[in-house]
Design a protein that fits this description.
Strand order of the largest sheet of chain B: 1-2-3
Radius of gyration of chain A: 21 Å
Largest interface: A-B, 62 and 61 residues
Helix content of chain B: 40-55%
Structural class of chain B: mainly alpha
Oligomer: heterodimer
Number of helices of chain B: 30
Number of helices of chain A: 6
Number of strands of chain A: 3
Structural class of chain A: alpha+beta
Low-confidence stretches of chain A: 143-168
Radius of gyration of chain B: 41 Å
Mean pLDDT of chain A: 78
Largest sheet of chain B: 3 strands, antiparallel
Low-confidence stretches of chain B: 288-473, 475-545, 577-741
Shape of chain B: elongated
Strand content of chain B: 5-15%
Number of strands of chain B: 15
Shape of chain A: elongated
Amino acid sequence: MATEFHNLQELRHSASLATRVFVQRDYSEGTVCRFQSKFPSELDNRIERSLLEETVKTLNSYYTEAEKIGGQSYMEGCLACATAYFVFLCMETRYEKVLKKISGYIQEQNEKIYAPRGLLLTDPIERGMRVLEISVFEDHGCSSSSPSSSSSSSSSSSSMSSACSAAR
Amino acid sequence: MPDSTGKRFKPTKYIPVSTAATLLVGSTTLFFVFTCPWLAKVISPAVPLYNGVVFLFVLANFSMATFMDPGVYPRADEDEDKDDDFRAPLYKNVEIKGIQVRMKWCATCHFYRPPRCSHCSVCDNCVEDFDHHCPWVNNCIGRRNYRYFFLFLLSLSVHMINVFSFGLIFVLHHRERLSALHTTVTLVVMCIPGLFFIPVVGLTGFHMVLVARGRTTNEQVTGKFRGGVNPFTKGCCGNVEYVLCSPLAPRYMLDPRKKPHIKIQPPFIRPDLSDRQITIKVSDNGIHGTIVSSKSKNSLDVLDEKEIQPPLPPKADRYNFKSQLTSTEDGSLSGKTHPSTPAMYKYRPSFSTMPKVHYHNSREKIMMGEERKTSAILEEGVRGHDYRSEPNLDLPEYTNAPLHRTFQSSPLQLDADPVNSRSLSLKQAQRRSEKGHLTGLQPQTVTSTPYKSVFSPNTLSNRNGSLSYDSLLNPSISPGNASECMAHRGMPSMGFHSPYLPTKMCHIREPEIQRQQVTTTYSPVMPVRVGRQSPHQRDRDPSPVRYDNLSQTIMASIQERKEMEEREKRHMFHGRSQPHIYAQDSGVFDGAGGYGLPPSGCYPDGTRSRGPTPPAYSGSRDNLMGVGLVNYGQRTPVLRHGGSTMGRALRTSSTSLHTDHSSSNSSQGRATEGYRSPTHQPHSPIVPRSPSYSHYKLSYMNALERTDSPRLGAPRETKIVNGQRDCHPGAHGTPLSPSRHNNVKKMTGIGGTTYEISV
């Protein structure tokens, strides 16, 4: 076993999950899907208020659009009835379309805004639309790690550099 | 996570659904086989068609109701409920359209059930908009499949009616041959709908009512809205529309899908320091290298600043402390103080470089922040530094976290207090040299100068090794702002008072000032209002501001400021040890009456009036005291903690200070004493501040006594009047007269600080 080479990659800091912050649902208007725009205090020094509020506001608007009862939902219902709901096998509903949009939006927000700040948004649909989960990562600043545990993508769905923790 | 584990195959639960399915399909098939041909022939071919469509509809809805996910919530992660599981209350209230709705904690699923959600014991799941668990479809009826269940009921009722009617027609037409096969079968087929007609139609009617009222079966049978208002109703039409026309809700129990990887890699961006948060870093040159960050989002800035600290000269350290202190409180200061500084600027445009970078920052921060208190504290702390100006000997000891705090608050209170406080401290530092103008702390300087720059060694050291606000705040401050010194709120530049107690200083100063008058060399530099960080500080001279010297307006503003500060301080200092310090100080101060300066009587008036100000500084006081000690002679431990010690020390120091005072600017010994005593005396009102004052004095004294160090001495000579740095005699013109206490002039200084000047 040759000496381990520690490249710069390994020597960089790694992040690990520190805590999770939850933005709860706002039920003030009934059971429509809305999230509270109250800024969680734990994120006070991690992200600007305006950014998170903007994200929540956009998500709320998406959900409102998805749940809107209007022309498109009528048509979908009638079509479904007419086809004995076989249409659901072929076509995705409006809600599903919006959910895909939301998922893309969250992905984009994560990449652009949250990941650089050590945060990660979780799509609310994975939590039953009950909470908007924000994972907070801390910089553990590990100095060196074995090459094998270098900060390359970890296994989980969101790759976090876990060199430090792994190395430890 | 979502599904319940350990499910075993229970055949019994399938009996109802099997029965229902069998009956439905079977009887309809028989109907179609045996009855419909004749009906098609005799009545119309449309009859079987119609029946076929209806049956198809029934089947589809039945299938959807049976196989569709009703809206099952996945189990919550452990993280989500880690705080809730054991200590959570059973219910959580939420207001929906003005009506309180209770959310119950689900022990199985580990979350508070959203409104209208319920846990199904058969399925062992929490279901959204839970209606009921239907055995006939062997499924929960929830948000997603309620429509299909309802339509199933409707269509089944129609279908049953159809079958029964057409069967009856057939039988009636075949009355004579009832024993014929078709007829018999038709009869049998007719019995089934006849048998289930009443339950099914009854249920259908029940659900029609529910839909119209916007309730679920669960809510209806548990009587949730009995006699009350249903917050979920949208009106009859709205409810019907909601049930029939709303889009299909999404499934929560999704397969884990592959999400794109998002790399989370430090370093992380931190939000910029917002104006609300002030992170004041006080660099203590390693001693206190802690950056007290307020909750500002500008942690990054703070961090950056921190780094700058080490290179700063010791003086800077002092200031650093202060700034650090500031940061303790949530940076409200920063934001706030900024706006206030302009006022200061107007008074003291010529603040010299701020010796303390910290101050600058803190001040800036303070301005940004909302909390004046903190800023005030900061300022006080800063001021303390000023006093110290002794070349760093004391600096390291500052650690004034509390100082910072004090500081922070103060700026807020006093508009320019932070600045002032800083200037005060600066002044103190400078007291000897400069004009004791607090102006040094000019807000403008502060604000403008970047945090980092503040720390620049240059600025710091510009004053004889003293951290004068001036230098810190405004590198360009000309020492000649003596006049402004007066306005300073009691810049402790006198060298004895801790910068942390701007307000206290004021109070203290007053007596001191008065004393100084007696002793002659009052340098009117600054009003004692140390705490006031205010604009008065314009002149960041080391010389303390003396009330005597302040103009009437300044005094008035000082007074106001003090009151405000005191009020704030009180808030802040509740928990502090101030009380005892206060006592101390008071005691000390009282005792200091005999210094040879005008009796405390002179000051009490003035100081008392300032009483209110200290509160903001109370925290700082502690620090200040400590700081002061540090500065002067490593009395830190003593001064810091022990009020008693302080008291004693103060006494001594005050004596010496007084002595100093007496000698007025020139004579150290007297001057110091005299210097001190006034401060002491007025303590009573300024209780919170007094400790710091005493500290300062103490330190001052120590410095004087011990060292006679050039730093102490020099500045002293120049100005110390009331422990406030030597003020520019010229600035205020009138030396404080012992009888000042008789008339207390109120002057408004920079930033609206009110100074009380005893004339």
